[in-house]
Amino acid sequence: MTRVLVTGATGFIASHTILALIDKGYRVRGTARSPEKADKLTAVLSTYAGKPVDIELVAADLTSDDGWAEAMDGVTYLQHLASPIPNELPKDADELIVPARDGALRALKAAKAAGVKRAVMTSSFAAIGYGWGDSRPAVLNETHWSNPDNIKDNTAYTRSKAIAEKAAWDYVTGEGAGLELTTINPVAVLGPAMSADVSASLELVQQPMQGKLPAYPKLTFGIVDVRDVARAHVQAMEVPEAAGERFILGEKVLSYAQIGDILREAYPDRKLPKGQLPSWFVRLLSNIQPVLKQILPELDRKRAYDNSKSRTVLGIDYIPAKEAILASTESLIELGEL
Ligand code: NAP
Predict the structure, then answer these.
(1) How much distance in Å is there from the Cα of 12 to the middle of ligand 1?
(2) What separation in angstroms does the CA of 265 have from each of 202, 268, 272?
(3) Ligand 1 centroid to 336 CA: how many Å?
(4) pTM for the structure as a whole
(5) Does position 292 have pLDDT exceeding 80, yes or no?
């Protein structure tokens, strides 16, 4: 059996990617900061899949060299998903940038040394659509790169993703030549959560469902279902033409108010916010609700992207955004989180 190493195996997207890989007959080894989470992860994956799932979990931290060479032993493909994605932004951007960039390089260098054929790295739309100021192209595609130096139009997280992806491409076109690289650049990822330990992106439905927002900030979000993101990771690894390419992953763009409409229609008994918040008020509110700082650069901006490359090269036939939103919400209710 061909072995695949999945970094950040306990994560939201990684869990779905692991199941998609196992379904296709791959043997999966995962990395985690705490490998003692192995039993819990196996139980979570098995419950979701409805059948026993067997994976091996080894220790590797993005911030340390320990364990990477051992993790890569006997591996044919690397799926590099680990990267800090916090609910609240740190004061010092390097808390995200350094592990994202140096961790990606650690994983890629170990992969190159072990003779891995291809690395798939989960970058983000954050490495494409940020830091443009007023010159953002009307429709973004994979030729576009964020400018992480424009701090006003970025967060520490979006900067960390652009800087890490750039470092990865620089590595495989230089010292790491011979190691194939493909990056996946998803917009906001929703869809079913397997455990209560959920990714920050699910805040998008948690915030209104938990009544934490008085009304909706003037924001738009590209949305993609985690099951499509998982499929894309497997395709990116298998499809020959995907080598050396980036792929935007995203279905529809919706305003936050439209997401609210979908939730209100599906959960008429819940008290959900209505209407839109003036952007000056959101800026003010972010001082007492720091989670909102993540969205400040995007207030009042519209985003549009071209997802045709993911459809034609990776064969992604997108799950509708509405289904992704409702699947997130339903899973969080079932997990007792909402
Ligand atoms: P997640 O559930 O929070 O997963 C992130 C994973 O990264 C966790 O397994 C975490 O491990 C690991 N990690 C963080 N810091 C680490 C460190 N110093 N050393 C080792 N592992 C570390 O979030 P996710 O949404 O699945 O994100 C997975 C990837 O997709 C990330 O690269 C993220 O940037 C990218 N992405 C996500 C979205 C989205 O909307 N969710 C959109 C675009 C791109 P612990 O469990 O030990 O914390």
Answers:
(1) 7
(2) 19, 6, 10
(3) 22
(4) 0.97
(5) no
